[in-house]
């Protein structure tokens, strides 16, 4: 029988050193001594006969081999966590806590009817509703950081149920110079002005979507802050329609006609990152959210 040379704890320590940017930071986060972390990683490298980290200045940096091994190790540690979580769900009738990650762009009012129905049936389960955006939401799926996730697309390797359509509008203040330019506005002219963008909540953001041509960009963490800046006649921004419709109707903000598109539409999906470990509380919440979904589905596939 094969006997592993390494331990799960050693791989978790390596991940922490990389994720937190060094031994000192990881030691603080893990509440361990820095020397114990150094020893664990050194022993890991010795047992494998592979150099995983090299210290450049004060920072521990992955070698090429280390990048490959670290990536594979995350699957290993996640599988162990999933296995232990499954055992907990098997040994108890109802999970004590349920984590629901929701993309910032998703209209919260579409979620509230399901939450109202969930409360009297929740058996005291604590519900965490956590806001994420862009890669941060996808990260919650890929790293199994939540029981349920509402995201604007389904990452590779997962399945999701469509629950709503989210429409985005390009808007600015009616007194902003862009609002008085000949329309439709050329995208190159648009790029000369301040763009307000929403900060990616991931620890490793990946700007792989969206119009980001403006060199002059201000980053905020919430759509509400972006709207406040727009009302101060600062910049332009893509904002979910449900957040600015009233302001547009009141004439406080205007849509910007742009060559190519002034409008984009995305579908929100409900995703369970670990369907095999789904507890009864998570199953109930998922069912209620799907019951209240606001999207047209083919009648041939879904007959209520």
Record keyword descriptors for this entry:
304 residues, alpha/beta, Arc Repressor Mutant, subunit A, D-Maltodextrin-Binding Protein, domain 2, seven-stranded mixed β-sheet, two-stranded antiparallel sheet, 10 helices, 37% helix, globular, disordered C terminus, LysR_subst-bd, LysR family transcriptional regulator, transcription, transcription cis-regulatory region binding
Architecture overview:
Helix 5 links the parallel strand 3 (97-103) and strand 4. The protein has ten helices and eleven strands. The radius of gyration is 23 Å and the shape is globular. The strands form three sheets. Strands 3, 4, 5, 6, 9, 10 and 11 form a seven-stranded mixed sheet that branches. Strands 1-2 form a two-stranded antiparallel sheet. Helices cover 37% and strands 21% of the residues. The protein folds into three domains: 8-89, Arc Repressor Mutant, subunit A (Orthogonal Bundle), CATH 1.10.10; 95-164 and 267-291, D-Maltodextrin-Binding Protein, domain 2; 166-264, 3-Layer(aba) Sandwich (D-Maltodextrin-Binding Protein, domain 2), CATH 3.40.190.290. It has 304 residues and is of the alpha/beta class. It has helices spanning 8-20, 23-30, 34-48, 64-90, 112-118, 135-142, 187-190, 223-231, 241-249, 280-291, and strands at 53-56, 59-62, 97-103, 126-132, 148-151, 160-172, 195-198, 217-220, 236-240, 254-255, 263-271. 29% of the residues are buried.
């Amino acid at each position: 029988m094969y006997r592993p040379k390494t331990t799960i704890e050693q791989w978790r320590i390596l991940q922490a050193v990389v994720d937190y940017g060094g031994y000192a930071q990881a030691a603080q986060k893990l509440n361990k001594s820095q020397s114990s972390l150094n020893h664990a990683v050194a022993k890991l490298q010795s047992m494998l006969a592979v150099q995983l980290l090299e210290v450049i200045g004060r920072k521990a940096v992955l070698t090429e081999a280390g990048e490959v091994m670290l990536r594979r190790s995350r699957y290993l540690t996640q599988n162990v966590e999933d296995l232990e979580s499954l055992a907990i769900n098997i040994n108890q009738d109802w999970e004590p806590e349920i984590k629901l990650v929701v993309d910032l762009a998703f209209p919260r009012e579409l979620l509230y009817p399901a939450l109202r129905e969930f409360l009297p049936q929740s058996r005291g389960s604590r519900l965490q509703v956590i806001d994420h955006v862009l890669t941060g939401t996808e990260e919650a799926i890929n790293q199994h950081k939540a029981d349920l996730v509402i995201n604007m697309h389904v990452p590779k390797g997962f399945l999701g149920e469509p629950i709503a359509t989210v429409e985005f509008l390009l808007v600015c203040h009616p007194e902003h110079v862009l609002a008085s330019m000949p329309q439709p506005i050329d995208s190159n002219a648009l790029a000369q002005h301040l763009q307000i963008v929403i900060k990616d909540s991931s620890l490793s953001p990946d700007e792989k979507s969206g119009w980001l041509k403006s060199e002059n960009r201000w980053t905020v963490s919430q759509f509400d802050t972006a709207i406040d800046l727009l009302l101060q006649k600062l910049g332009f921004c893509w904002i979910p329609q449900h957040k600015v419709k009233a302001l547009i109707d009141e004439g406080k903000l205007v849509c910007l006609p742009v060559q190519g598109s002034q409008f984009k539409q995305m579908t929100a999906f409900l995703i369970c990152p670990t369907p095999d470990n789904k507890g009864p509380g998570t199953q109930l919440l998922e069912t209620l959210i799907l019951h209240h979904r606001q999207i047209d589905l083919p009648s041939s596939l879904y007959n209520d």
